[in-house]
Q: What sequence folds into this?
């Protein structure tokens, strides 16, 4: 590769920026140490101030830690903004975080700053005042190469499809690892428009495989924290992923962008004391996620608010106090109409029942006095008690405690659902005219005698959360309101694989949104859950609608080569009746996907053999199969002597990873073996969309090993891939990757 003439000067500038970054780190560390050395004495205010200084210093040190990431990745030269138009140029270096010199003049501009926008968005047709955009190929602080884009101003129709195409394609050629990398150096124009979109409201990002939607969503979280630091740092940002494997895969992206305070969780993780360990039937899973279950849960709570069937009789001070069933029903009806959660209103029921008993008590005393011919007291009654004294005593009566527990029991969400699904009469009452008999029967299960024995499922989590919102905390705490123990709210929520969330799960997320600000990313074409939506409107109707939602589409596939997308695109067309077009691949590799027919008796060993061949020449390899086939394939990989792992045990660090389609969403590998495509299609919850997901995971090579006939759409797709012309590809595909670093 030829050496760019500016490389020595740019290397010197990079070295200077790194020196200043180290000086900034030392200053933050010195502030921390000076505060710690001051000791823990002094007034309470002084101690609080010291704690704030220490926390601020630690946060600053964490922000300034780059790890192995490079500080800078480019430069822009633009017309000066002084308005004179004399050709003067301003120069800005773009990097992961802002670095200034000794006089506080900027050496590096944070990539999220407004001035950096042109680095990602300027095109030949709309240069945004740029004369030059320069991309750096770096390794740590070492500059390896320079790619320049010079913007002409002669009206020439310049191709504006890719930003920094050489740097982009060089990044795409790198081998994958067990963790997602940030794309901050190579963000493209349509991605940047999503990243910098306004905070308020719900933003939906529709993107096919390889469009970078996950990375875009994470970069958007970092951008929003930078731009709206004051509200979001206090309110928090939450990122929801489909499973723990995915969260481990993306966990380093935000820290590499200077943001380490973002919460990462699965939906189940939002209810941490429940661990799903059972699996619902497909029908039960579909019903539990249906929006109608909100009404079923509401009714289940209301059914536990009921009057007594018989008179309540309580002995007190020689008197027999009696409250009729009608009076208890009237109490329940009054309290039902009042605001508040179920458990918090228990005190109102207690007070009203105590008032009814106190009325009986005072009336009984009066009758006794009249009967005693004017004697002032009734033997052993302790004298007249005012309402507060009477209430404190009567509430300890076993009869009153039992009555209250029947009229208005204090309920935990786990108790409510355990009782509901384990009691056919309760379930029939709550589901009447809401669910069919078959749907109701699908929810029924044995009632566990202890909560530890309840076979919770993933779909139960959203129902438990719905119940918690209705019930409130088990007991009110002095000086605290109904919000105690309720879900934490967040200023912004990012949801990946949003197309697979059920309506009940969406309601669960909506309760955690402080202002209705959310970013949903996903692909309708990859929807495989029991709640697969026909379009994003089916998702949005279950979310806060404080502002009109926005839906944008990412149209370019940066991960999957064109040859593989030819094969996968035919499967997508068959799965969605041509309703969705696959994204256009930005590159072709000349490596056509391969279908390898094998004998059924040796099928598993042939899959292992194909994985071994790919592992010897590629970085990361995945074997994707139907869930039922995983044990046999694991044994075959062992027999072949391959180092392999399962994502739940070893993450994605092994050379070969064995997993099914539900676990592979959002992940990418250098090469993929799809084991028996027909079995993936036929698996419960699978279908052609599941096969489409499996086919679009590789960045380089795809091999389908099959003993059974391939699905017809895949056959057509493989034929299309083999017929791909050698000429006529997008000019961006023909760029010389070796021209960069």
A:
């Amino acid at each position: 590769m030829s050496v760019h003439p500016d490389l020595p000067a740019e290397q010197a500038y990079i070295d200077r920026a790194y020196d200043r970054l180290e000086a900034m780190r030392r200053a933050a560390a010195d502030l921390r140490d000076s505060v710690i050395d001051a000791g823990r004495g002094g007034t309470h205010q002084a101690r609080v101030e010291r704690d704030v200084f220490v926390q601020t210093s630690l946060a600053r040190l964490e922000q300034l830690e780059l790890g192995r990431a490079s500080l800078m990745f480019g430069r822009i030269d633009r017309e000066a903004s002084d308005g004179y138009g004399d050709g003067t140029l301003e120069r800005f270096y773009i990097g992961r975080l802002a670095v200034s010199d000794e006089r506080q003049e900027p050496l590096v501009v944070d990539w999220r700053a407004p001035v950096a926008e042109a680095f990602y968005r300027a095109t030949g047709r709309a240069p945004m005042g740029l004369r030059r955009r320069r991309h750096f190929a770096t390794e740590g602080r070492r500059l390896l190469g320079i790619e320049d884009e010079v913007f002409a101003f002669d009206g020439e129709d310049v191709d504006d499809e890719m930003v920094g195409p050489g740097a982009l394609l060089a990044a795409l050629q790198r081998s994958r690892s067990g963790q997602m990398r940030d794309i901050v150096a190579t963000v493209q124009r349509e991605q940047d428009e999503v990243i910098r979109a306004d905070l308020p409201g719900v933003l939906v990002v529709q993107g096919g495989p390889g469009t970078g939607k996950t990375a875009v969503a994470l970069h958007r979280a970092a951008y929003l924290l930078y731009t709206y630091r004051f509200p979001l740092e206090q309110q928090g940002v939450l990122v929801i992923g489909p499973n723990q494997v995915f969260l481990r895969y993306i966990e380093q992206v935000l820290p590499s962008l200077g943001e380490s305070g973002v919460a990462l969780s699965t939906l189940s993780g939002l209810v941490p004391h429940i661990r799903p360990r059972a699996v619902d039937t497909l029908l039960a899973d579909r019903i539990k996620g249906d929006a109608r279950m909100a009404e079923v849960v509401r009714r289940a709570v209301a059914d536990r608010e009921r009057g007594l069937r018989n008179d309540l009789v309580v002995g007190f001070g020689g008197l027999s106090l009696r409250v009729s069933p009608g009076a208890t029903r009237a109490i329940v009806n009054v309290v039902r109409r009042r605001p508040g959660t179920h458990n918090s209103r228990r005190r109102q029921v207690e007070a009203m029942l105590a008032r009814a008993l106190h009325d009986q008590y005072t009336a009984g005393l009066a009758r006794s006095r009249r009967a005693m011919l004017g004697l002032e007291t009734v033997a052993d009654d302790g004298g007249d008690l005012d309402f507060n004294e009477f209430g404190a005593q009567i509430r300890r009566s076993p009869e009153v405690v039992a009555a209250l527990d029947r009229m208005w029991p204090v309920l935990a969400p786990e108790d409510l659902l355990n009782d509901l699904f384990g009691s056919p009469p309760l379930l029939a009452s709550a589901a009447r005219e809401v669910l069919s008999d078959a749907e109701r029967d699908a929810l029924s299960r044995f009632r566990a005698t202890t909560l530890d024995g309840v076979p919770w499922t993933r779909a139960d989590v959203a129902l438990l959360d719905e119940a918690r919102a209705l019930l409130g905390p088990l007991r009110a705490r002095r000086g605290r309101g109904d919000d105690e123990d309720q879900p934490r709210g967040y200023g912004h929520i990012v949801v990946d694989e949003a197309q697979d969330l059920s309506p009940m799960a969406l309601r669960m997320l909506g309760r955690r949104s402080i202002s209705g600000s959310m970013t949903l990313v996903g692909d309708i074409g990859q929807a495989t859950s029991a709640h697969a939506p026909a379009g994003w409107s089916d998702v949005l109707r279950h979310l806060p609608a404080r502002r009109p939602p926005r839906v944008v589409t990412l149209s370019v596939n940066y991960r999957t080569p064109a040859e593989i997308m030819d094969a996968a695109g035919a499967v997508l067309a068959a799965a969605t009746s041509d309703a969705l077009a696959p994204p256009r691949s930005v590159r072709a590799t000349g490596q056509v996907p391969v279908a390898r027919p094998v004998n059924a008796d040796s099928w598993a060993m042939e899959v292992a053999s194909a994985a071994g061949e790919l592992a010897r020449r590629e970085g990361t390899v995945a074997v994707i199969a139907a869930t039922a086939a995983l044990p046999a394939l694991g044994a075959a990989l062992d027999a072949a002597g391959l180092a392999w792992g399962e994502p739940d045990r070893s993450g994605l660090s092994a050379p070969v990873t064995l997993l099914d389609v539900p676990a592979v969403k959002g992940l990418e590998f250098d090469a993929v073996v799809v084991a028996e495509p027909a079995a993936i299609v036929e698996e419960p919850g699978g279908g052609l969309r599941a096969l489409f997901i499996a086919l679009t995971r590789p960045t380089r090579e795809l091999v389908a090993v099959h003993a059974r006939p391939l699905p017809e759409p895949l056959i057509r797709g493989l034929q299309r891939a083999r017929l791909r012309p050698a000429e006529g590809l997008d000019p961006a595909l023909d760029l010389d990757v070796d021209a960069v670093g």
